Amino acid sequence: MTSRSRARPAAGGGGHDGGIRKRGGAARTDRDGDMDMDGNGRAARSNRAGNSRPTSNRQQGRNKKADVIQRALGDARGSSQASVRSGKGAPASNLVDVAITGWQKSKSSAARDRTVDDLRSFLERRVSSQTKGPNIKIHKSRVEGDAFIVSLRPDLVERIRKLNGSLFAGNYITVEELNTTDTALDAELSNNGTSAETMDTKSKLATILSKRYYPDTKLLDMSKLSSDPDLQALGVFNSTSTQSKFFPALMKVWDMQFTTASEKHAAVESVSLASNQLTNIAAVTSLAQTIPNLKNLDLSNNNLADYKSVTGWRWKFRNLQFLDMNGNPLSSDPNFKDTLLKWYPNLQYLNNVQVRTPEEVAAQKKAPIPNQPPIFEDQGSIGEHFIRAFFPSYDNDRNELIDGVYDSNSTFSLNVNTRAPDSPTVKMITQLPARMSRTFKGVEKIRQLWNDLPQTRHPDLNTQADEYLIECHPIHNLPDPTGQNAHGVSGLQIMVHGKFEESVNGKIELRSFDRTFVLGPGSGAGGIRVVNDLLCLRAYGGHEAWSPENESIPQALQPPVGAIAPAAAPVTAPIAAPAVPAASTTLPEGYGVATPGKPETQVQQEQMVIQMSNKSRMTLQFSEMALSSNAWNLEAAWNNFEQLKAQGTLPADAFLP
Amino acid sequence: MAPPTEDQLTKVSTEAATNFVRTFYPALQSNRDSISSFYSETPAKILFNGNTVADGKAVQDIFTNQMPVSYYEVQSFDCQIINRSYPTPTPTGPKQPDQRTVKDMSILVVVSGSVRYGDRDPAKPQRGFSETFVLVPNATGGDHGKGRRSEYLIEDQNFRLVV
């Protein structure tokens, strides 16, 4: 197994060294034995290289463990979640195709094959020689007409382009990057077709789509495809191979007609796939990627017989309101209605019968206790730095993570909620399930288990923050590793809800997880240690549960209450909230920025004003008034603003031009 | 007194977590008058979906007055010892290290399950939740009727709907 990128995880912002590395030196605590929250005194400590263990022989144990989890989750869910991303290394879809032309001389095929081999080695040699490091191999290439097409990692494209105009076997070669969308289409429709044929196919598919699209009703009618004379003429139904490639290609062509995502989303509300003899949605599953926010879907008069045949869309189409499956055997299943109601929380009409009123849809979304943004109380950003560095490290180098912040008293445990979220069984809560967990204490035991667990990929916290819900607050009376404080020390409790992909026997599985950490002061990176790390895996359940019912201002930005602000603490955006949008108003010089002599509270207040202004579109002056009249409580100020706005009592000049 | 063994500690924590889960969720469902007795006098933090609640009494008020009947299903739970030598509060102040027994520990409990609000019909949609607790020893009071008394009380609670 080769290890993936070993890039040191970067902590977000603030100039903190948030990388997770073990550090020498004794635990640093403040006078009360609490966590070192100001991040000072760091420079004196020396780094020690991570103590990496050899990584061989891990796969076997890993698969065993993975199997158990796989079975536990897989059985509950019926079938595995399809994923677009491949497990290890660069996904194939990330490769860039580059066409080399002008090289061909010989007409005989034997000579041509030899020439292709020569050309490949020529390119490998020349690309490799441009930098030091391992030689570059071209693993994927093909000949199309006059072009030799190589698929390369994106970082190598620039290097091969430099070979444009080079002399190869007496000919000057031309090197051009292929348009990626064309290539994707090409790959999907490739039956030794040349680029010209592909372009032709593309325009034919576009014509077919235009005949089947009704902009007035926002309907894309893809019913009875096999009896479409244009498609028959294209020969897409001549072989199973072209048939399976045809629909994704059709979707790709549809995609290409739009320049923006919002334009694309606005174009279609309804899709018909009626009367297509579908026995499984596998052939058309890409619809869910192309038109994810579909409202009406007609699948009538196909041959869908069981839930398995449609399970690929189980977690898709979260906005589906109307579904017609008349004329499919599945419609007569006794649990049909109940199951589909659970699958699609917004569904109102099933097989042309109303199954839910709009009021019921609204009511079921409302939890008796309203959903509020995450609470993130994190003095000195210790929790934020920890969590930003944690998941990239866990995905890429668990050994380094263990050596960095776990110690002989750290505890890790893993349990699996094997119940599917929509399991029909009602179980009395007095019958508790067996605790399917084991506890691992100390660096070596945790290391052993982690090396056996499948490789994971968590969403990027910087770009996919909405897929996480992260909360953090102080916790007291933690064990004191130095033994100096009889009543223990203080630290942080962090609760993370999210998802990750893991690679199980070559298949990518999507999981949801809940992970609770207790962090205390210690000798690890950033002056912390992991006291507890408790991971619960469950079947994938999306992240819409915590999307705020109405967008509100993250409470994490509220000024600290009853706590002493650490001196010169870096003010960073809370991780649990989307990144702060760039200020669209011109800020006075130095506004919201810590400068010598400026009190910390002023910096924080200015930053809150910027936040408020960005969100409300009010001027800085009015934003400041709103905040100061609400005791600098962002949430209160926001509510107040919404109230005034609704009443129409805000003057026009309160808003940015 | 000899320090407790790992096995003893695991047994105490697992039993405490199991008893807690087994009594707390039924109380939320059908014994709401007893809810406050599950909480320590001054809990550090209580959060429900990002809403801060002051104490056990406030939680009980919310459940008795605002919450529809709720059907909880605990699907898995797990626990870990946080501090095996916890300064359990007593009327005369926190226990000193030499006064502590195997039971003086704080415990992290995480529960994963589902809840259905207001309707017993199993076909109605249920929501998935994740709930994290910190339990601490009950040295002083807390009695949820019928002479039963929790050995451990909620010091910290964070409930979130996650599905």
TrEMBL record, chain A:
It holds the Pfam family LRR_NXF1-5. SUPFAM superfamilies: L domain-like, NTF2-like, UBA-like. Residues 38-53 have a biased composition (Low complexity). Residues 1-66 are annotated as: Disordered. Residues 603-657 form the TAP-C domain. GO terms for cellular component: nuclear RNA export factor complex. SMART domains: TAP_C (SM00804). One of its GO terms (biological process) is poly(A)+ mRNA export from nucleus. Residues 382-537 form the NTF2 domain. Keywords: Cytoplasm, Leucine-rich repeat, mRNA transport, Nucleus, Repeat, Transport. Belongs to the NXF family. This is mRNA export factor MEX67. The lineage of its organism: Eukaryota, Fungi, Dikarya, Ascomycota, Pezizomycotina.
From TrEMBL, chain B:
InterPro entries: NTF2, NTF2-like_dom_sf, NTF2_dom, Nuclear_transport_factor_2_euk. GO terms for biological process: nucleocytoplasmic transport. Residues 16-161 form the NTF2 domain. Pfam families: NTF2. This is NTF2 domain-containing protein.
